[in-house]
Amino acid sequence: MQFFFPYFQLEGTTPLARLFNAYLEELQTHAVAIDPGLVTMHELHMGLFKSANGPVGQMTSLAEEYLSLSILQGSLKAIHKQVLGAVETLEQFFSQYAGNLTHYAVANRLASIERDGSNDDSDFVGLPDTQEGQVWAVAYKDDSESLAPYSLKADLRQFFGEEGTRGEFLGRSDAADFYPWTEAVAQASEFSTRNLFAHTGVEVPFSRLDADGNQQTLQLADHIEDEINQDIRNGTLVEHFNHALNLLSEAARRFHAMAESAEDSTPYRGILALLKEVRDLDFLE
Question: Which of 110, 186, 219, 242 would give a disulfide with 175, using CB separation of 3.0 to 4.6 Å?
Answer without folding.
Answer: 242
